[in-house]
Amino acid sequence: MRKKGTVIRWDSARAFGFIRSPDTVADIFFHIRDYGENRHPIEGTEVTFDEIHVGGKGPRALKVEPARNTVQEPRSLPEDPNAVILPRSPTAARSTPPQTTKRENQLLWATMGLMAFWLLLWLAGIALDRFSTIPVFSSLIILNLVTFYIYLYDKNAAEEGNWRISENQLHSLALLGGWPGAWFAQRAFHHKISKTSFQITYWATVALHLLGLLAWLIWPAFQTPVG
């Protein structure tokens, strides 16, 4: 049976918040991925949700949705008797999401292109006998799986207040070649994608990794033959 409550707290930086419901004694935790809307929750919004209890922790809300016949407003403004209420422009209301989606699609295709170029460099290194096939691909798969898992661990640690993985360690994994796994983890868990400084450093490690790999491949061409 779905419950009703009100969002009493929302932490945009950490992407989680709490709901207060008359049917539950404790405040109920929920994460952005449990919120069935494209925008962030707003404090004071009435919502409906499913409640679960896992591992002896406090209650958690799943499938959180704004209650019907409610409007999300940050805060009400004083009424002005001389104000004229104009109808909302449908075009203006729908203009932002398509633009955002277009940028996201462009970033997605650019990233897929970088990953294809990255794989091409490794294949070129194998063809030029710069690398061994089995050790290289085994190491890359293991490194990216480990990176993906570490992001998952850090995300859970952030939600539960446990010991965190340092950002330097996350960037080191990306620099070594785990950046594809890091990219997929960031989007799968909605982790670190809204922190601008982290994203700038992350993409810098991607660029350094690709440049280092490219330099390793072409370096023999610049060596002067002996004799």
From TrEMBL:
Pfam families: CSD, DUF1294. One of its GO terms (cellular component) is cytosol. It is found in: Cytoplasm. CDD domains: CSP_CDS (cd04458). InterPro entries: CSD, CSD_CS, CSP_DNA-bd, DUF1294, NA-bd_OB-fold. PROSITE patterns: CSD_1, CSD_2. Residues 2-66 form the CSD domain. Coiled coil: none annotated. The keyword Ligase does not apply. One of its GO terms (molecular function) is nucleic acid binding. The chain crosses the membrane at residues 107-128, 134-153, 200-219. Keywords: Membrane, Transmembrane, Transmembrane helix. It comes from the Bacteria. Residues 67-100 are annotated as: Disordered. This is CSD domain-containing protein. It comes from Hydrogenophaga crassostreae.
